[in-house]
Amino acid sequence: MNNAQDLSIISLVLNASLLAQAVMALLLLLSLLSWTYIFRKWFAIRRATSQTERFERDFWSGGDLQTLYQSAANSRHSIGALERIFESGMREFLKAKEKRLSDPGLVLDGARRAMRAAFQRELDVLESNLAFLASVGSVSPYIGLFGTVWGIMNAFTGLSNVQQATLASVAPGIAEALTATAIGLFAAIPAVVAYNRYSHDIDRLASRFETFVEEFTNILQRQSH
Fold first, then answer.
1. Residue 4 pLDDT
2. Cα 173–179–181 angle (5° rounding)?
3. Contacts of 109 (CB under 8 A, 6+ apart)
4. Is residue 215 a contact partner of residue 59, using CB atoms and an 8 Å limit?
5. Nearest residue to 151 via CA among 175, 115, 128
6. DSSP code, position 63
7. Where in the chain does DSSP place strands (E)?
8. Where in the chain are the domains?
9. Rg value, the chain, Cα
């Protein structure tokens, strides 16, 4: 029972060297931050998807574009990403119409550029913190491996003062070293899974945004004539 207690995770962390403890603390901090971003990004993507589906229903239901635009313009900070893209394009289109530009191509180019700029801003927001998850997923195993190598070095260095090396004398040091690798994997695996999943979800949203930009541009083209 005493040996089981000595080799528990908590005791291994507490009895590890200062460098190994620093590595474990860093990995736990990275894991905590990655889980925070994982949950935030999950809620953000879920909200963006819901808002996109709701606006697409309203837009393609045949409602008046001016009414949709006024609704979006009056609540710009509480609407979804796709609605902000629509609002940007519609605003530029109406400005160009007010200036009575004779060339429909200039009118459409301005609206398209405004929607593309808004599209890129919304995509940047959706992709925020994904790079951090990717970094945690790729770097954490190596940080844990560094702690493991350092712990194994210390374990074998300690054997130089022992006349007879036994498994009991080596096991605690090896277990302490492998704990760093385990914590590294604990930090890396969720980050990699979340990064891959969220990248896929954001790519699907980006595709829907791009499709809407093209379709809305066609609608504005018909109206400009």
1. 42
2. 115
3. none
4. no
5. 175
6. -
7. none
8. 2-61+129-224
9. 28
Query: Nearest Cα to 116, choosing from 89, 77, 93?
Result: 89
Contacts 24+ apart (CB under 8 A), 37-43: 37/129, 37/132, 37/133, 37/194, 38/133, 38/190, 38/191, 38/194, 40/129, 41/129, 41/130, 41/133, 41/194, 41/198, 42/194, 42/198
| 19, 150 Cβ separation under 8 angstroms | yes
Report which of 188, 160, 163 is spatially closest to residue 173, judged by C-alpha positions: 160
Report pLDDT for 168: 60
Which DSSP state fits 164?
Answer: S
Query: Following CA atoms 144, 145, 147, 149 in sequence, which dihedral angle do they give, to the nearest 10 degrees?
Result: 170
Write out pLDDT tens, residues 139-169.
999 998 888 888 787 777 766 666 665 656 6
User: Of 124, 174, 169, 136, which is closest to residue 152 (Cα–Cα)?
Assistant: 174
Q: Hey, what are 153's tokens? A: 């070095």
Enter the DSSP assignment of 100. Answer: T
Answer whether 183's CB lies under 8 Å from 144's CB. Answer: yes
pLDDT tens digits, one per residue of 198-220: 999 999 999 999 999 999 999 88
